[in-house]
Design goal:
The structure is a single chain. This protein has one domain: Arginase, Chain A (3-Layer(aba) Sandwich), CATH 3.40.800.10. Helices cover about 30% and strands about 15% of the residues. By secondary structure, it is an alpha/beta fold. The longest helix is centred in the C-terminal third of the chain and has 18 residues. The protein is globular. One of its GO terms (molecular function) is agmatinase activity.
Length: about 300
């Protein structure tokens, strides 16, 4: 995609000879939600970019979430390459586009940040790390996403990302944070996740015990891919989701999880998905998502 307005005004590429440390891209479609209209996710990246557009002139200002300006005195080294040309009912092609883009960014020595897109898009994003060193996945979500299949055989759709991740040899471990309520999983799926060794940390545990109840499960020095489903946060601050569930994480808890992950190991990738734009209220989800991405970028840039 050309001619788009990059997140925080980031360019599509840097001047010749300069290599980005971080590359953002959008992934509007993954694997089709059979019987459902996925078009509500397709404009998520554009809405998030628009929500933070006015801040593009302020990136040298003090950011109280980060304890200093976004780039922390460093040369700006972020690009936003726009949205991939994914399309409805091109499931396998969409997955390959996402995985290939992720591999391309990693091979250039940069950190990929993907803005989804529906809940199936993390599967090829994770797959794109296959040629790099092992990663741990830190999932922030209301649901554990361990379904084997949906709709009579679809294995790469929504509700299956963490099941598919568990089958990837380069995924060293999984920590799942924010689960709550009915509908998050069937009994067999919880048992399968635990048998694999996934650490499931409920939203109640985070509220009662703090973020260390999740971060402690990740080994020191690990390479970490953070995958954030918008319904992991409470719907009072992120209403733009299909399955709003009360009791979710707060904005502060999420940015503290991101900061703690950067301190625990190294954030190797980040995705934010499941922003259903027709369900948003007063642009609140777009704004909150944009601010979370700013925090993720700031923490990644502060990594040694």
């Amino acid at each position: 995609m050309t001619g788009h307005t990059g997140f925080l005004g980031f360019p599509e590429k840097l001047p010749d000879g300069q290599k980005p440390r971080l590359v953002i891209f959008g992934a509007p479609y993954g694997t089709e939600y059979q019987g459902k209209d996925s078009s509500g996710y397709a404009t998520a990246a554009a809405k998030i970019r628009a929500a933070v557009a006015e801040d593009a002139a302020l990136i040298e200002n003090w950011d109280f979430d980060l304890g200093g300006p976004l780039f922390n005195g460093q040369v700006p080294s972020c690009v936003d390459t726009g949205d991939l040309p994914t399309r409805v009912r091109n499931d396998e092609g969409n997955r390959e586009l996402i995985a290939a883009k992720t591999r391309e960014i990693l091979s250039a020595g940069a950190v990929p940040i993907m803005i989804g897109g529906d809940d199936s898009t993390p599967i090829p994003f994770f797959a794109g790390f296959a040629e790099s060193d092992p990663v741990w996945i830190l999932q922030i979500d209301a649901h554990i996403d361990w379904r084997e299949e949906l709709h009579g055989g679809e294995r790469f759709g929504y509700s299956s990302p963490m099941r598919r991740a568990s089958e990837m040899a380069h995924v060293a471990g999984i920590v799942q944070v924010g689960m709550r309520g009915l509908g998050s999983a069937r009994i067999q799926e919880v048992e399968d996740a635990r048998r694999y060794g996934a650490k499931i940390v409920t939203a109640r545990e985070i509220h009662a015990q703090g973020i260390d109840s999740a971060i402690r499960h990740i080994p020191q020095g690990a390479r970490i891919v953070i995958t954030l489903d918008c319904d992991g946060l409470d719907p009072s601050i992120m209403p733009g989701v299909v399955a709003p569930t009360p009791g979710g994480l707060s904005y502060t808890q999420v940015i503290e999880l991101i900061e703690a992950a950067a301190a625990r190991g190294r954030i190797a990738g980040f995705d934010l998905v499941e922003f259903h734009t027709p369900s948003d209220i007063a642009n609140l989800t777009a704004l909150t998502a944009a601010r979370i991405l700013v925090n993720a970028i700031g923490q990644i840039l502060r990594q040694a």
